[in-house]
Design goal:
The structure is a single chain. By secondary structure, this protein is an alpha/beta fold. It folds into 2 domains: 2-273, P-loop containing nucleotide triphosphate hydrolases (Rossmann fold), CATH 3.40.50; 283-344, no CATH class. It has helices at residues 2-13, 26-29, 41-65, 82-89, 108-111, 117-120, 142-145, 148-151, 164-181, 195-207, 217-223, 226-240, 255-273, 282-297, 309-344, and strands at residues 69-76, 98-102, 129-133, 184-192, 247-251. A 5-stranded parallel beta sheet has the order 2-3-1-4-5, sandwiched between helices. It is elongated. Bound molecules: adenosine monophosphate and magnesium ion. Magnesium ion binds next to loops.
Length: 345
């Protein structure tokens, strides 16, 4: 059942994945208005809820296993729905298991360091899901579109030559590979919004009083660089979608669909990690039993020596049955494999 679900999700997100090594032209290759035919807006609420439950369950396992961490990198143009996506996708997750960092214009302290420094400082721990609301990818996006940002970084001459963006792509790919090798899985989501939908969303921010706080004249000014951003995003997607950290382009004109896709891509990454609750060793189990005897002996008069004794036995029985089922299935698979091998031979 869980495998079926994982398979279905993997199939559904496959069209959003940027094939490593491919050359992306955003306007041609990805439609911001796309919504799949397998789900309607009405069903999406229920489906997202299911997705959120899966994320919650897997985050718990991730924390228990304490071996892998997950870094979600979220990039988009203004008004593409980054905040709402984060809110929905994390809504069921234990707050202790997730961290969110938003990256703004670098401070003077941050500018005193190499450009990856502030991101390295805010990486998730093992067992944690960390979300970057904007990320080191701004270093090949806004910094590229507005080169005065690069000047502020006071780089040595060799590091700001003509090949600076190529070098940064390489730095980033290498860094992500290093993180992956060391137990940090990177999930990269680009929320792909159309120019017309952005215009509509800005107008909503102006017209609806509740949305006024979100409006920023600077965002509208950035819209003037739309084409330069599309080009920078296309270059970024082409150069930094790798086998170890592929990009997913999320169609963002329909918020409900974007959220569903984001949750699905994250769920897929967790399925791939497949974190397990750690097994209790025989030694630890013996220690549990000894302690249990001591605690039972402390029961005051009239109190049950162990109020959970029945429940524990029931769970144990269930677990034993499940293990037996698993063993039977494994034997069946082995026998089948042996039979196929014999046929082949
Ligand atoms: P917001 O996410 O709307 O609060 O805005 C954050 C702002 O910080 C955006 O305008 C980004 O372009 C800007 N920003 C983020 N990272 C960088 C960076 N590395 N260099 C320059 N500007 C940045
Ligand atoms: Mg903004």
């Amino acid at each position: 059942m869980a495998d079926e679900r994982a398979k279905r999700i993997a199939e559904r997100i496959a069209p959003l994945r940027v094939t490593p090594g491919s050359r992306v032209v955003l306007a041609k290759d990805f439609d911001p208005g796309y919504k799949a035919d397998f789900v309607t807006k009405k069903d999406a609420v229920e489906l997202l809820q299911q997705g959120v439950e899966v994320l919650s369950e897997y985050q718990e396992r991730l924390a228990a296993q304490d071996t892998w961490g997950v870094l979600v990198v979220l990039q988009a143009l203004d008004a593409a729905g980054k905040d709402g996506t984060i809110r929905h996708v994390t809504s069921g997750i234990n707050p202790q298991g997730v961290s969110v960092h938003s990256f703004k214009v670098p401070s003077s302290e941050e500018l005193d360091h190499d450009y990856l420094w502030r991101f390295a400082k805010n990486l998730p721990r093992r067992g944690e899901i960390g979300i970057f609301n904007r990320s080191y990818y701004e270093e090949v996006l806004v910094v590229r579109v507005h080169p005065e940002n690069l000047t502020r970084q006071r780089l040595p001459k060799a590091a700001r030559g003509r090949d600076v963006w190529k070098r940064r792509y390489r730095d980033i790919n290498d860094w992500e590979r290093y993180l992956g090798d060391n137990g940090f899985k990177i999930v990269k989501l680009f929320l792909n919004l159309s120019k017309e939908e952005q215009r509509t969303r800005f107008l909503r921010r102006i017209d609806l009083p509740d949305h006024n706080w979100k409006f920023s004249a600077a965002d509208v000014h950035e819209r003037g660089s739309w084409d330069a951003y599309q080009k920078a995003f296309s270059g970024m997607l082409s150069a930094t979608s790798t086998e170890w950290a592929p990009w997913y382009v999320i169609p963002a004109d329909h918020k409900w669909f974007a959220r569903l896709c984001a949750a699905a891509v994250l769920a897929n990454a967790l399925f791939e990690i497949d974190p397990r609750f750690p097994k209790v060793t025989d030694e630890a189990r013996k220690a549990l039993r000894d302690t249990k005897v001591e605690l039972e002996a402390e029961a005051p008069k009239g109190a049950a020596s162990d109020p959970f004794a029945d429940e524990g036995a029931r769970t144990d029985k269930k677990a034993r049955k499940k293990a037996a089922r698993g063993a039977r299935k494994a034997t069946k698979r082995t026998n089948e494999a042996a039979a196929t091998e014999a046929d082949d031979g």
